[in-house]
Amino acid sequence: MTEKQIQRLLKIVGDVFNVDPLKKTRQRDYVQARTIAMKILRDKGHSFSRIAKLLNLNHSSIIHHTKDFDFQLKYDKDLENKYERVLLQMAQGNNIIYQLSHDDLIKYTFNLEERLKKIILSNNRNKNYENLFKFIQRNIPESNLIEAKQRLKDLTDGLYN
Fold first, then answer.
1. What is the distance between the alpha carbons of residues 23 and 78, in angstroms, rounded to a whole number?
2. Residues 114 and 70 reside in one and the same domain
3. Between the chain's N and C termini, which has fewer beta carbons within 10 Å?
């Protein structure tokens, strides 16, 4: 994770718990917020010492909290829900759709619909061409085949464009 992504993670964790995860306190919400940040950073491949530096903690605290985290999730449904919310918000931030305004999202949707219509039309046209070309190959002499295909293509292009 880049420094920007780490800062984003800490902001999301702070927003979900409504705390500053870097604040030095042992209050439950703060500890749980830090623990979720530790778990995600560890899952992303950061070392215990790197995470400890980021959160201003001792590396042994990181080891303890991340080792205990999966056990806590089994018995604390509120912690599990908050963990899932953080993961969801992190994933959403990587998708452009979640960064668009309402109006831009509507425009994006219409643009996708138009692109889908063009793809479907193109696929249908190609299928129609295949059937017509097969029919032409069976019914037109070899010497006139190339000219017939070109004339047919010229005619149908005007219909689909």
1. 21
2. no
3. C
Same domain, 78 and 150: no
Tokens read off for 69? 């985290």
The three-state (H, E, C) secondary structure of 33-78, written as one string: HHHHHHHHHHHCCCCHHHHHHHHCCCHHHHHHHHHHHHHHHHHCHH
Residues 8 and 55 in one domain: yes
- For the full predicted model, state whether its pTM sits above 0.90: no
Summarised one tens digit per residue, pLDDT across range 117-128 is 888 777 776 666
Q: How far is CA 65 from CA 52, 95, 132, in A?
A: 11, 30, 68
CATH number of the CATH domain containing 22:
1.10.1750.10
Cβ proximity of 38 and 48 under 8 Å: no
Q: Can you tell me which residue has the tokens 């409504």?
A: 18
Residues 68 and 113 in one domain: no
